């Protein structure tokens, strides 16, 4: 799918489909986007950022794609079972506006891949969150790194990338240029 293209989102072509069907579409497109991103950053040094641990599904999948110690995870709280909890020195719990700058101070620009899945049904909320979240992600991603998100993010030093075609759900990708 071209970056930013898709129609499976609630309020964006998902009407008439069951919640289960839309969830399956979303998870399938997300898994495919993560597989694409793994190939896009293959052979590059750097960590992986998971912005939002949530229920731990994506973190668990990332552990299969990358070594677990390579993944820095950010969330407001931890609500996952112990087997899905990142190592303490790789887990940043609290407000992203505090934890992400702290991680940037500690690790610098360290990530070859950043994944942010923060979308909701409130597009205004998501747009406001994207506005302050993008610079926090940018401070952690190495030049040449890839940012993957379920919502549009914008930075002047990011170039949009095309994901493989899939109209079921919207996903976005960028390469950090500097």
What does this structure look like?
This is S-adenosyl-L-methionine methyltransferase. The chain has 178 residues and is an alpha/beta fold. The chain contains four helices and seven strands; from the N terminus they run αβαββαβαβββ. It has helices at 19-41, 57-65, 96-107, 123-138, and strands at residues 47-51, 71-75, 91-93, 111-116, 141-149, 158-161, 172-176. The chain has a seven-stranded mixed β-sheet, sandwiched between helices. The longest helix is centred in the N-terminal third of the chain and has 23 residues, at 19-41. The chain is globular, with a radius of gyration of 15 Å. The relative contact order is 0.22.
What descriptors fit this protein?
178 residues; alpha/beta; seven-stranded mixed β-sheet; 21% strand; S-adenosyl-L-methionine methyltransferase; SAM-dependent_MTases_sf; Methyltransf_put
What global shape is seen?
globular
Strand order of the biggest β-sheet: 3-2-1-4-5-7-6
Helix content: 25-40%
The oligomerization state is single chain
SS elements, strand count: 7
Question: Over the alpha carbons, how many angstroms does the gyration radius reach?
Answer: 15 Å
Number of helices: 4
Low-confidence stretches: 1-12
Q: Which percent band covers the strand fraction?
A: 15-25%
Helices and strands, in N-to-C order? HEHEEHEHEEE
Terminal-residue CA separation: 25 Å
Biggest β-sheet: count, sense, barrel? 7 strands, mixed
Structural class of the secondary elements? alpha/beta
What is the mean pLDDT?
91
